[in-house]
Write a structure and sequence with these properties.
heterodimer, A: alpha+beta, 4-stranded antiparallel beta sheet, elongated, B: alpha/beta, Rossmann fold
């Protein structure tokens, strides 16, 4: 009997006009937004996590200013200095503190020009080992830089893979101009799946100072801990030490001490906030859609009063009519849901692929079967719930009044 | 003439409506007896109460007063759903306006009453095919009502009325929307059903039609039975 209702509803829906399908726009848009957003949001989160290139070590990063856009340290009025570095080394539980300067540089190769970020490479042997360890990176080809290197660089994976607009792929042994200084490529770094690291130019520190013209100031300090379990305590100690040396009050810090989790959390909070906001808008759209279904079903009951009368005359019980209209409303919702899932999935797929290829990461969109299933069931239920009142109306139609037309 | 077994009896039945401030006495104490195998006509001018009588005989409506018996069982106090189930099984309707469902094909229209009796789909479609051939519309099964002529639609309606093999066929002005020729074809089918033993109740305002086919004619006027004419056939 139930399959009969579905078949019957399907037949009725096929005869519905454009007006009916337009009333589904609300459900359609709502579902599209939810599906696209959840898919995109997950892709975005994974991408961001990949960008952070979270290392295997628990490290604390310190930079001047607060959380900001652009390379660390850029546009800061009161940068970190070597004095700060010295103080940090004296804080409890600090094993090493590594300074890092990230600069914007101009690359030239084969008459092609590209602007990218460079990072300075420490001369000190221990510190340079840490460079690889803290960043969980190594060379794919060639060798690591060493302290005797002066006119040499290591390049990120994308130069080798010819994903940077420099005409052709660059290999170990090639020469490349960095800020008009000709440097020899001695190593290519492994692929990291992060657009910062895959486009990086690693330059020996003294050479980097010379090329980019920085001196005492430090963009970023990476702190390696003796005991990673004390990361929160050490973070507080670092903050209080820096407040003292930089002579600022609590709450007015001109520096930022953060753990990888904290940094990720900030990003995730922002993303989640955006998601919640858009989901609320999507829900409003679904409510509008539900009202649309109530409207179209009520109209349909009025238009089909005669059919209802006929069905009752040939033996339909009130419950038959009620279920018939309820299922029909549910199927309207379902139709909106299916259309929404198709468009939403497409948006989410191309969106994620787009972001991934723009940022050069490997994040692939995930097809969430459970989400799709839940959305289908929910669309049907929203439709059916919207259909309850019209269906009761339909079931109450008096056959006598209508069938003599 | 029928076999004398009572199928439907209306006993002192009244139906009153309130129309604005006025009480309309559509039926005001009528008694009908319809026996198995009878061809009964309910005759009367418009406003005489024949439509109301038809609704009550067909258990589409319940009386204000009096009792209605179907197979000697009082149905005047049954619930709507119970009545629906009962009329779906025991009564087949044929209407003046044909009243086919436009979204369904001829065959699906014929199969519809069986759906409400819980019959399986393959069984329904098989029986619908048989009924289609009975009304000479085998090649029209997949047509929608708006692709059929009036006469064809009324034959589909006759086939639908027979879907659950009911005891009584209730025809409400069955030729009212048809020209004389197609009306005659429809009447031929009704006559054939009667000959095969079905009880037929026809509501009409056409005395010639009523007297031409019926064993008994109830003449209604102003909500009361004015006279009853019986005919004994050859």
């Amino acid at each position: 009997m139930f399959t009969d209702y579905f078949k019957f509803s399907f037949k009725n829906l096929r005869h519905r006009g454009l007006r009916t399908w337009l009333t589904l726009l609300g459900i359609f848009i709502g579902v599209t937004v939810v599906i696209a957003l959840i898919g995109l949001g997950n892709g975005l989160k994974l991408t961001v996590e990949a960008q952070f290139g979270v290392s295997s070590l628990e490290v604390i990063t310190i930079q001047a200013g607060g959380v900001q856009f652009g390379p660390p340290g850029s546009g800061v009025s009161n940068p970190l200095t070597e004095d700060d570095l010295g103080e940090i080394l004296g804080v409890n539980n600090v094993e090493y503190a590594i300074r890092r300067n990230i600069e914007t540089v101009k690359l030239e190769y084969n008459d092609h020009i590209s602007i990218t970020n460079s990072i300075d490479f420490p001369e000190d042997k221990d510190e340079s080992d840490l460079f690889f360890d803290t960043n969980d990176i190594d060379t794919l080809q060639g060798r690591r830089l060493k302290d005797s290197d002066t006119n040499a660089v290591m390049l990120g994976y994308n130069y080798y893979a010819n994903k940077v607009d420099l005409g052709e792929s660059i290999e170990v042994g090639d020469k490349i101009e960095v800020n008009n200084e000709s440097l020899k490529v001695v190593g290519i770094l492994e692929k990291q799946g992060s657009f910062i690291w895959d486009n990086i130019v690693v330059i020996p520190r003294e050479k980097s100072k010379e090329i980019s013209g920085f001196d005492e100031e430090i963009d970023l300090i990476v702190v390696v801990l003796k005991n990673t379990e004390l990361i929160e305590k050490t973070k507080e100690d670092l903050e209080s030490t820096l407040r003292h040396t930089r002579n600022v009050d609590r709450g007015e810090e001109d520096f930022d001490v953060s753990t990888p989790e904290a940094a990720l959390e900030t990003v995730n909070q922002v993303l989640t906030g955006v998601q919640i906001f858009i989901v609320i808008i999507a829900l409003i759209s679904v409510v509008v859609g539900a009202i649309g279904i109530i409207n179209t079903m009520t109209t349909s009951v009025m238009e089909r009063r005669k059919d209802i009368g006929i069905m009752k005359a040939v033996g339909a019980k009130n419950s038959d009519i009620f279920l018939q209209f309820l299922i029909e409303a549910g199927m309207l919702g379902l139709a909106g849901g299916i259309a929404g899932i198709l468009l939403g999935s497409a948006l989410s797929y191309f969106g994620t692929v787009g972001i991934a290829s723009f940022l050069g990461t490997d994040v692939m969109p995930d097809v969430n079967i459970i989400l799709i299933f839940v959305t289908l069931v929910a669309s049907f239920l929203i439709g059916a719930m919207s259909g309850i009142i019209p269906a009761i109306k339909a079931a109450k139609q008096n056959p006598v009044e209508v069938i003599r037309g | 003439m029928g076999r004398g077994v009572e199928v439907i009896r209306l006993k002192n039945v009244a139906k009153h409506y309130r129309l604005g401030d006025n009480l309309v006495r559509a039926l005001d104490g009528v008694d009908f007896v319809i026996n198995e195998g009878d061809f009964v006509s309910i005759m009367g001018p418009s406003g005489s109460g024949k439509s109301t009588a038809m609704n009550l005989v067909g258990s589409l409506d319940t009386p204000t007063k009096g009792k209605i018996y179907l197979d000697k069982k009082d149905i005047s106090k049954l619930s709507e759903s119970a009545l629906a189930q009962l009329r779906g099984k025991k009564i087949g309707f044929i209407f003046q306006q044909f009243n086919l469902i436009n979204n369904l094909t001829a065959k699906e229209n014929i199969a519809l009453p069986m759906m409400f009796q819980g019959e399986g789909e393959s069984e329904r479609l098989k029986k619908a095919d048989e009924l289609l051939s009975m009304v000479d519309l085998v090649d029209r099964g997949d047509h929608y009502p708006n692709q059929l002529s009036g006469g064809q639609q009324q034959r589909v309606a006759i086939a639908r009325a027979l879907a659950n093999d009911p005891e009584v066929i209730l025809a409400d002005e069955p030729t009212g929307n048809l020209d004389t020729k197609t009306g005659a074809i429809v009447m031929k089918f009704l006559g054939k059903l009667h000959k095969e033993g079905k009880t037929v109740v026809m509501v009409t305002h056409d005395p010639k039609l009523a007297q031409g086919y019926s064993d008994i004619v109830y003449w209604l006027l102003d909500g009361k039975v004015e006279k009853i004419t019986k005919r004994r056939r050859g």
